[in-house]
Design a protein that fits this description.
It contains four helices and seven strands. The chain is α+β, with helices and mostly antiparallel strands. A four-stranded antiparallel sheet has the order 1-2-3-4. A three-stranded antiparallel sheet has the order 5-6-7. Strand 6 and strand 7 form a beta hairpin. The radius of gyration is 23 Å and the shape is elongated. The relative contact order is 0.15.
Length: about 170
């Protein structure tokens, strides 16, 4: 993401590795089931190979998915980038952010991760703008609040400079 003049980054990060634990646990369960089926059909060697291969694939997919998702907060924008080959990018202006909601399950609270849902004013879209699986969601929310305050300050300073009357021409 390229920054505009006067824009600076307040937060940039990826989903936490702790947020992918659920994905890994489900993958382990699938690997055990399919490895067990392969064991019953063809014996221990194939069962271990199938189960181990599936779990290794799940770990690699989870790692790539986590590293190819980037959340950025600047003093002007909130930005989400997903994907390695095919990419999806979402962006909203800080000034249009009206509400930030932290969603955490009991397990997520214990792990210190959560999802941030952003409500934006006037965009009329039904797209969900969400930072999923961020570590320390309260501190990330504070960064959003800081961005909103900086944005409002920048706007008011720009407004004051525009409304000042020019001095006499000499």
């Amino acid at each position: 993401m390229e920054l505009a003049p006067g824009e600076h980054t307040l937060f940039e990060g990826h989903p936490s590795w702790r947020a992918t634990l659920g994905f890994y646990i489900k993958g382990l369960g699938i690997a055990i089931v399919l490895g067990g089926i392969a064991y019953l059909i063809a014996g221990a060697g194939l069962g271990i190979a199938v189960g181990g291969g599936i779990f290794a694939l799940v770990v690699i997919i989870g790692f790539i998915k986590r590293l190819t998702t980037t959340y950025t907060i600047t003093n002007r924008r909130l930005h989400i980038k997903h994907g390695l080959i095919a990419q999806k990018q979402q962006e909203t202006r800080v000034g249009s952010t009206t509400n930030v909601t932290i969603n955490q399950s009991a397990l997520e609270r214990m792990l210190g991760v959560g999802n941030l849902d952003f409500d934006t004013a006037g965009d009329g879209r039904s797209d969900l703008f969400q930072f999923n699986g961020v570590a320390g969601p309260s501190s990330v929310t504070e960064r959003v609040n800081q961005a909103v305050l900086e944005h409002e300050s920048d706007r008011s300073q720009g407004f004051n400079q525009q409304t000042q009357t020019p001095g006499p021409n000499v």
